[in-house]
Amino acid sequence: MKKAILTLFVALISMYVYGQSNDGTETKQFKKDKISRVQKCRTFYIALSGGFNNNTGIIGVNLDWAVADHFALDAGVGISTWGEKLYLGGKYFLKPCHLGWAFGTGITYNTGESDFHDNLETVDGDTEPVELKLNSQTNVLLAAYRYWNLGKGSSRFYLELGYSIALSSDKFIQIAGTPISDNSTRAINLISPGGLIAAIGFSFGVK
């Protein structure tokens, strides 16, 4: 799966280069600070992002489709601390051409890990090898985004801040080893999906 995601990165960047050389964008005229200017409005973006509790994990790819002047649907996949991560959501932009501030919601799914091995503190006070099963997790999220254009092209840089809520409290099951301590349990819960979202990303207009 991880190899497939990295291969997808290369393919998507190639699509971006192709899209830049085939400019079939629509133009929309709008006023900002009483100054009228023409801006190219893309309808399809590829985004590469990463961060803490990021929608698509530590590193991932999003496909962002502008279905209306102020609204976009997006979906993505990536690599996380809790297996692979899938995302589906939507955003409402306050400005035309999908720039400036946006607010969104969505749902994420982490596959978990069937054989997670690590050296953790146990109830005996020693650090020992243990085996855990990280259960799959489904979360809902609310987030605010801030987008900026990069230069005169159609690329965008953005920051995301939000919160993710887990729909299940069953995070993991210990399969082998001495039972882990409360400190280890808290550490595992800390890397599980959910909580504060702080992410950064770049999106490339391809259509």
Number of strands: 13
Overall number of domains: 1
* Topology-level CATH name: Porin
Gap between N and C termini: 27 Å
Strand adjacency order, main sheet: 3-4-5-6-7-10-11-13
CATH architecture: Beta Barrel
Mind explaining what this structure looks like?
With 207 residues, this protein is mainly β. β6 (83-93) and β7 (100-110) form a beta hairpin. The chain has an 8-stranded antiparallel beta barrel with strand order 3-4-5-6-7-10-11-13. The protein has a 3-stranded antiparallel beta sheet with strand order 8-9-12, with helices on one face. It has a single domain (2-205), classed as Porin, CATH 2.40.160. It is elongated and about 65 Å long. 14% of the residues lie in helices and 58% in strands. The chain has helices at residues 2-21, 182-191, and strands at 26-32, 35-41, 44-52, 59-66, 71-80, 83-93, 100-110, 113-121, 127-134, 137-149, 155-166, 172-176, 195-205. The protein is built from 2 helices and 13 strands, in the order αββββββββββββαβ.
Keywords:
single chain, Porin, 13 strands, 207 residues, eight-stranded antiparallel beta barrel, three-stranded antiparallel β-sheet, mainly beta
Structure summary:
With about 210 residues, this protein is mainly β.
Note the topology.
Elements: H1 2-21, E1 26-32, E2 35-41, E3 44-52, E4 59-66, E5 71-80, E6 83-93, E7 100-110, E8 113-121, E9 127-134, E10 137-149, E11 155-166, E12 172-176, H2 182-191, E13 195-205
Antiparallel strand pairs: 1-2, 3-4, 3-13, 4-5, 5-6, 6-7, 7-10, 8-9, 9-12, 10-11, 11-13
